[in-house]
Amino acid sequence: MAARRTAAAAGSGEDAGSVPLDELMPWSVPPLRTGRSWVSGPDPAALRARWEQLAAAGGAEQDRLFRPSRSRTPRTPVAALPGRSTSTGRFAREPGGCPDPVRILHGPFDEQWLLPDHRLIDAARPELWRVGDERQLFAVEHGYVPQAAPGPALSVTHLLPDGHSPAGRPGRIRPLYRRPGATDPNLAPGLLDVVRARLGPEAADPESVLAWILAAARPGPSGCRVPLPADAEVWAAGVELGRELLRVQLRGARGGERPRLPGGRRPYVRAALPARPSGIGYDAEAEALVIGDGRISPVPAGAWAFTVSGVRVLELWFGRRAAAAVGAVPEGADADGLEAVGARGWTREWTSELLELISVLALLDGLRPRQEALGARLEWASLITREELRAAGVLPVPASVRRPASVLGHQEEGPEGQFALL
Question: What is the pTM of this model?
Fold first, then answer.
């Protein structure tokens, strides 16, 4: 009967047999809020050019280019971002040198660049910068969109994520670890003990739990929900699948292999892409992306059709770069503002990134049948319920684990060179 109740609940919108991700990974951070679009983008050279123009300007012209907000103006005193050595003097008086742009994940599957200067960003989420290191992983919820086409509920990255959904629905950013060095897992206290007790002593470590979540999480109106099986075979199958999903999404980071399609079906540029492309299409018969007179193939249909929150990933990725290549300015921005600085046509780097993204999406689409099969098994599997977690003292989680941990092993520079106390 328990299995039948689980199956019935699985089709009821909010799955009563599953556990909210917010209870499994209790510390979460809202998306970054830059306050001005020119501080990030797909081309690091353009970001450096924008910085140089802003730093060279003064007075009212600098204000206009900066695009002040309630949180930031060129005269706002701000602490340095953790781990960064940028100036903390007021930008209008002491801009300093241009910081090296850092790689970020702009929404799911779109690797872009950011100027890592706290004086330029309304809400940079310093707590994420403090715990970001070579061993950290971030789970990012995509936000719930009713009646959206099927797509992943969340993604995982080693990069600093900005947390934005392609559909404009803010999700949450959940670091796997609360402290640097892969210490203090961001998991409900006691969760690992319960999983090991039910599924075996070797069943769970923090990355195994994250892999399971990646494979089994389901989107919902109140956030992602995760069924926890009480069957060791189901758990092992899900963890194995989740590790495959993770490997693809990390794109060779942490010692892994770059994503490659099986059978030698690597996408190639068959005809050169134009310097300033205006549109993208798909030739299903030839399995080819068509970008002006340029063509890329083979591109599996699943990669072209891959969506997140109802938005086609390849079209969104291409549209952002096509706009940058022609110097298009976001709606509401100045036509001669910093957003228009640095456009130099379609870059060779973007072509390489596009080829890799095609492989990533094709591989993820190829794993979708295994995710569907896992979901079908879970409809009838016995589960570790919230009631069991409450009885074990795992739930409710203490309020303290929903807040950032104190991680400072050194002083951080505050505004105007003062040291921050935290």
Answer: 0.92
